[in-house]
């Protein structure tokens, strides 16, 4: 099958990905995209659901997917396929770029290439957050990409398909975010406690950092989700798809 010609993302899925990306500026976050791909001369990926993942490796410049998470995502896609009667499967992945450009890094391109080796239409979305332009206005960017045969970046046009409301799958994904925060922070706290060998002051310090870190992530998630809605609030109601290669949202005030 030839490379993708277009990615169509339902608006509720796009908003959920963006909300996840805005949940932290310390590290990259990620998830898997679920949908279907038509077997046309110019294939189109239609993304209708997502699965938010716990991060295996919490680093600012990269994120990874474990084999267990991929199995869980495949099982979830099969469940959605049975309930909807559509041939849904894992069709791509998304991740955030806090404080850096929207363009994929060499690590992103390598990861994408490994997915494409198994499925040529697999696609990656990137949400670049916590940046500002020359006028110091907040800026969010989003793009879709694949890895070209020479290892370079191949931009894929993306359409955001308007929706009147969040569907159940997207609402369920949003509802799991606080639980995901808790699990990630708890695991990091557990590793820190194991390495400190019970030293009282370090235990107290780690406990305080744990509470503050988790609390701030939940608060930031709520506030930044509200800001995200302001970024993309349209001036008029439209039922036409929004098509772009790189989508930029500017906060004017």
Structure overview:
It contains five helices and ten strands; from the N terminus they run E-H-E-E-H-E-H-E-E-E-E-H-H-E-E. With 253 residues, it is of the alpha/beta class. Strands 1, 2, 3, 4, 5, 6, 7, 8, 9 and 10 form a ten-stranded mixed β-sheet that branches. A hairpin with a 5-residue loop joins strand 6 and strand 7. The longest helix is centred in the C-terminal third of the chain and has 33 residues. It is globular. It starts with 5 loop residues before the first strand and ends with a strand. About 4% of the residues have low confidence.
Summarize the SSE layout with pairings.
Blueprint: E1 6-10, H1 11-21, E2 30-37, E3 44-52, H2 67-84, E4 89-98, H3 106-118, E5 123-132, E6 138-147, E7 153-155, E8 158-161, H4 168-195, H5 200-232, E9 242-244, E10 246-250
Parallel strand pairs: 1-3, 1-8, 4-5
Antiparallel strand pairs: 2-3, 2-4, 5-6, 6-7, 6-10, 8-9
Helix pairs in contact: 1-4, 1-5, 4-5
């Amino acid at each position: 099958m030839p490379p993708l010609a277009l990615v169509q993302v339902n608006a509720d899925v796009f908003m959920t990905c963006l909300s996840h990306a805005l949940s932290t500026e310390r590290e990259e976050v990620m998830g898997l995209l679920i949908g279907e791909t038509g077997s046309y001369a110019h294939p189109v990926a239609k993304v209708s659901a997502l699965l938010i993942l716990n991060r295996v490796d919490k680093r600012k410049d990269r994120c990874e997917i474990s084999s267990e998470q991929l199995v869980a995502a495949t099982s979830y896609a099969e469940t959605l396929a049975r309930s909807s009667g559509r041939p849904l499967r894992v069709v791509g992945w998304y991740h955030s770029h806090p404080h850096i450009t929207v363009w994929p890094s060499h690590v992103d391109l390598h990861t994408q290439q490994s997915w494409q080796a198994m499925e040529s239409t697999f696609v990656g979305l990137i949400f670049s957050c916590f940046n500002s332009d020359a006028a110091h206005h907040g800026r969010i960017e989003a793009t879709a990409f694949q890895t070209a045969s020479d290892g370079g970046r191949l931009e894929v046009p993306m359409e955001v398909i308007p929706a009147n409301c969040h569907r159940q799958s997207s609402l369920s994904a949003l509802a799991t975010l606080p639980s995901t925060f808790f699990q990630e922070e708890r695991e990091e706290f557990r590793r820190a406690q194991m390495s400190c060998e019970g030293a009282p002051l370090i235990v107290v310090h780690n406990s305080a950092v744990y509470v503050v870190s988790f609390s701030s992530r939940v608060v930031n998630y709520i506030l930044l989700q509200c800001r995200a809605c302001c970024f993309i609030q349209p001036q008029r109601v439209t039922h036409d798809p929004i098509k772009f290669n790189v989508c930029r949202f500017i906060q004017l005030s």
